[in-house]
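Bit of a strange request maybe. I'm writing a small parser for structure token strings and I need a real example to test against, not something I typed by hand. Could someone generate the tokens for this chain?
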Amino acid sequence: MADKGAEIRADEAVSPDEFRELCRTHDYVIDATGQPSLSVRTFADAGAYTGNIVALNADVEGDFAGLVSHPRTFFEGYVGYAWLFPKSETRANVGIGWAGEERPDDYFAALSAACRRNGIPVPDRAETNVYTIPRVPSLDPAETYRPERNVLLVGDAAGIANRYQGEGIVQAIRSAYCAAAAIIEGRPETYPDRLYELMQPEYRLAHLMRGAWVEHEDPELLAAITRTLDGLTVEALTRSPRRVAVRLLRHPTVVSVAPGRGMLSRLHEAYTDNWEYTRNGVIP
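Reply from user aminoacidic:
Good idea to test on real output. This should exercise your parser:
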């Protein structure tokens, strides 16, 4: 990018005052600073986000030859899960996340215990990353473009991530392309609706899956969902929500929750685009 005239400053913090100046002196500012975003913190809107998932992950070394094409997820008895995503025959990413209100007192101790229970190498604490991930969607889509400040939010800053496995890189890239296209066309005001449409399949499935947790709070159901998704690649979970839905609907334990009034209500909400947020605001 530098050869195209971009100025790149690595490992440089931006203060709120500097951010305000960037907004004042530039036509557009792309905020990809995570949740809560720098723009939200700068302009005292931190309460705009509605929820988060806490996750830890790290790369470990071991014998993963038999798992290279088979990502694993492990139900841990709460709203969340642990995982093993092989990167090669000798290296894998391991982690654990919490999507509900119940959180451990010691996150790393919980990760270590989950690794030992599931026969996974325990990562070094110094090499373990801790993230706050949007509990999708955790920001009103209308707030992803602030015309009065020339700011477009992408990725975690925009409150988007994959609800059922926490993936955020693909969503960040897709939203960045979406924002860039709107700017190039000279129509940045179309970005929120474009992003909304782009994320619609994931939001629909996320609303239904959250219903399985909220309406039932059944550990066996949560375990069944985790087992049903086990083995799907990150790409399939992120880019093929219909494939995920089909797999879930074929599982007898998961299907058994469908007749409930709460789930039927959520099904209606999902397919009339009434999840946590709509274009007109928050759903009660």
